[in-house]
Amino acid sequence: MKAKSVEFLSVARLEVVEAYLWYAERELDVGERFLVAVALSESRIRQNPEWGTPHRRKTRKMRVEGFPYHIVYREEADKIVIYTVAHGKRKPDYWIDRL
């Protein structure tokens, strides 16, 4: 079975950039490690979307390893859509209206 493509909403991609910049301002290689961890999570989601924990409104959630972030996504017929890359301790469900 061919892996589905993964599509980030533009606001989710912006969340990745903002988190990267926050970490990179403190220590550049931490920012780089964050990007690698997000890419690894994305790869895992692409390989097996069922790995994520069931979440609200038919989404799934996967932790970004080594960081207090998680990715919320939904598998559709032809792709996987990432709705948010959210900090786990800030404003829960602020992204819910993106669904």
Keywords, please?
99 residues, alpha+beta, five-stranded mixed β-sheet, 2 helices, 5 strands, globular
What would your notes on this structure say?
This protein is α+β, with helices and mostly antiparallel strands and 99 residues long. The protein has a five-stranded mixed β-sheet with strand order 1-5-4-3-2. The mean pLDDT is 94. Helix content is 37%, strand content 27%. It is built from two helices and five strands; from the N terminus they run βααββββ.
Write the layout of secondary structure elements.
Layout: E1 5-8, H1 10-26, H2 28-47, E2 53-54, E3 60-64, E4 69-75, E5 79-87
Parallel strand pairs: 1-5
Antiparallel strand pairs: 2-3, 3-4, 4-5
Name the shape in a single word.
Answer: globular
SSE arrangement, N to C: EHHEEEE
> SS-based structural class?
alpha+beta
Radius of gyration: 13 Å
**Which sequence of strands runs across the widest sheet?**
1-5-4-3-2
**Quick check: average pLDDT?**
94
Helix content: 25-40%
Strand content: 25-35%
Low-confidence stretches: none
| Amino- and carboxy-terminal Cα gap | 27 Å
Q: So how many helices?
A: 2
Number of beta-strand segments: 5
Characterize the main sheet: 5 strands, mixed
